[in-house]
Amino acid sequence: MTRQTRIRSAETGARIRAAALRLFARDGYAAVSMRQIAGEVGLQVGALYNHVADKQSLLVVLMREHMEALLAALDAEALPEAPDAALEGFVRFHIRYHAARPDEVFIAYMELRNLGPENFAGIEALRRRYEDRLEGMLARGAEAGIFSVRDARVATMAVIAMLTGVTTWFRPEGRLSLDEVEAIYVEMARKAVGAR
Amino acid sequence: MTRQTRIRSAETGARIRAAALRLFARDGYAAVSMRQIAGEVGLQVGALYNHVADKQSLLVVLMREHMEALLAALDAEALPEAPDAALEGFVRFHIRYHAARPDEVFIAYMELRNLGPENFAGIEALRRRYEDRLEGMLARGAEAGIFSVRDARVATMAVIAMLTGVTTWFRPEGRLSLDEVEAIYVEMARKAVGAR
Q1: How many angstroms separate the Cα of A172 from the Cα of each of A105, B81, B84?
Q2: Which pLDDT does position B57 carry in this prediction?
Q3: Where's the DNA-binding part (chains A, B) (predicted)?
Q4: For B3-21, how does the pLDDT look when each residue is reduced to its tens digit (9 = 90+)?
Q5: ipTM of this predicted structure
Q6: Which of B30, B162, B194 is nearest residue A161 as measured by Cβ atoms?
Q7: pLDDT digit string (tens) for A101-114?
Q8: Which of A17, A109, A99, A11 is closest to A62 using CA atoms?
């Protein structure tokens, strides 16, 4: 492969993933055919298989990319050590990141049922790594007497569900700006974990 | 129609809805055909159309039944007037009701995208009625100085998302019983809305 061909191939791969993401989010994974995905990017279905093994690997790649980008973006936030400030940073980050990616969120949560057992385990491990970041903050805060949580694991699941829920109702043209929504959720999350 | 025929027809209708629910939850609405649903209940696809107009009306009926049963079950709880006790009752009810119906929850939230505009508006109105019950408690509690919420509407969405999230991770054979999970969420929801 020449350098040019490699670049073109990488571009095609990215276009395939973008098309699959759009179609999976709109119609659901099970309803979308490889032929449809090929059609979206202007390829013959045979040529599509030069870039991707099958529909399942396309789904896994989309989910893995989403989780890895999420983890990397959280790292890039470089949240403060203090549990209190870290929690505020996490809440704002999670809402902002997910509100901007409704298709990815929808697929990442809703198409888990369509993953084979091994792929499921891989994605779950990445999700667990993300959840562990928040759980660590809550546990550290509880230890320091700053938070009061009866069960850091359950509190983590509760806070994340609360925050992800924003993607189902938030509209940029709505009554509240994303910044106002973030502020309300920071306050609620702080109170929910008994922040002093 | 004789009485016998009417009863048999009603039973078939219920079996069709149960099969559709199972298949939609497993494969997603878009991937399921009327032929498949007919096969599940041992009918010819032509006979299926004696009971249901099309796939869309099957989806709407499932969602409407779910929301109406949910509202009726909440009414049957006859929650106390006091906002504090009402919130605790609501939290326990919501978790218990939804944890027992993962398929219905999955469809009710995930297949909204597959409703036509009019059907969507109808289901949204029912959902709104349910949300308004919690919002009313929070607003009354805030007025009485028992709760402290900056925005009763947003707090409602946050609490409901938090509670519904339980369906995604709770397993009866897991570390915590449903009763223990309920107790933790009651405490977190109370704190989140600043209950004194």
Answers
A1: 17, 36, 33
A2: 94
A3: 33-52
A4: 888 888 889 999 999 999 9
A5: 0.91
A6: B162
A7: 988 888 888 888 88
A8: A17
Residue limits of CATH 1.10.357.10 in chain B: 54-192
pLDDT value at residue B41: 95
**Cβ-Cβ contacts under 8 Å, A160 against chain B:** 165
Mean per-residue pLDDT over chain A, rounded:
94
Average pLDDT in the A126-131 region? 97
Q: Treating both helix axes as pointing N-terminal to C-terminal, what angle do A3-27 and A55-77 enclose, rounded to 10 degrees?
A: 100
CATH 1.10.10.60 maps onto chain A at 1-52
A118 touches chain B (CB under 8 A): no
A151 and B27: CB-CB below 8 Å? Answer: no
- Distance (Å) from the alpha carbon of B36 to chain A's nearest alpha carbon: 14
| Candidates B157, B184, B192; nearest CB to A154 | B184
Report the C-alpha gap between A52 and A34 in whole angstroms.
10
Which residues, 6 or more positions from B157, have their beta carbon under 8 angstroms from its beta carbon?
Answer: A165, A166, A169, B131
User: With contact defined as beta carbons under 8 Å apart, do B112 and B29 qualify?
Assistant: no
Class of domain B1-52 (CATH, top level): mainly alpha
The tens digit of pLDDT for each residue in A32-73 reads: 999 999 999 999 999 999 999 999 999 999 999 999 999 999
Report in angstroms the alpha-carbon separations of B62 from A23, A106, B20: 24, 21, 8
Q: Give the pLDDT score at B111.
A: 87
Phi-psi region of B170 (alpha: psi -120 to 50; beta: other; left: phi over 0): beta
